[in-house]
Write a structure and sequence with these properties.
The protein is an alpha+beta fold. The chain contains eight helices and 14 strands.
Length: about 300
Amino acid sequence: MTTDSIPVIDFSPFINGDTAARAAVAQQMRQASSAWGFFYLSGCGMPADQLAEAFAASKAFFALPDDDKQAIAWQNAESNRGYVGVRRERLDDSKPGDLKEAFNLAPEQPGGPRNLWPAALPTFQPEMEHFMAACIATADRVLEAFALALEQPDDFFVTAHNRHHHTLRLLHYPPLPEGYTPQDGENRAGAHTDYGSITLLFQDDAGGLEVRTRAGEWLAATPIPGTVVVNTGDLMHRWTNHVFCSTPHRVNVPPQAQHRDRFSIAFFCHPNKDAEIACIDTCASADNPARYAPISAGDHLLQRLNATY
């Protein structure tokens, strides 16, 4: 744990260790989530071959002709599935549209929205479903550690997420054309906070992710092989009464990478839509009383999505 760079935490003692080892890792995660809202997690148990398969499938999808991608375009916040073209999303509403394209999918629920699959890639669906299952398993372990860190029952957060109302998002940041100068404030992804409880972010080696420090400075979250970036989102910020922080971050266009592709995969972990997000008892005190009225996780997500597109 350091104070001048985003912490790197070895998660393997939480998965394989005894009670004391698990408690020590949970405490590191609490410190990182309080001070930074971001940390790198190594030893999380995510198979490297599954991650490589998911990145290969993502690259194949974004290489499809635009007509194929637009045929399964994102339609509305209620389903929040499908293809999002370059500049369609504006994460910072004071800036131009983001220089990225994306594809959203989610674990399917009986009677719920269905994922949109590209007809030209017959193996894409099983590859993505396989990867989502691995992300759910990793996210549940992280949530279990958070519960321990906040002196809650081990299944406190996992139970509140057990309907898997998550979103998996494939992201592609195309190269900028030769001689192109970004417009005023234009970025690959504008400054924003994430909407849900936690995010698992898998990066390639292109770089560009930046995290805003408490002092207001932007710090590069340089890719570290073998790690996943974990950050706490707005609902965790609210749930924990600001004990865990939801930190602004963005994807910049570093000069050395503006003429190459950047790929990343984000797994947005979101509570069950009917889960009530109310201040956790161990996160309130006389000096830090509850700051927010309870809200359902689903209402919060719809408010944020409708403001973004």
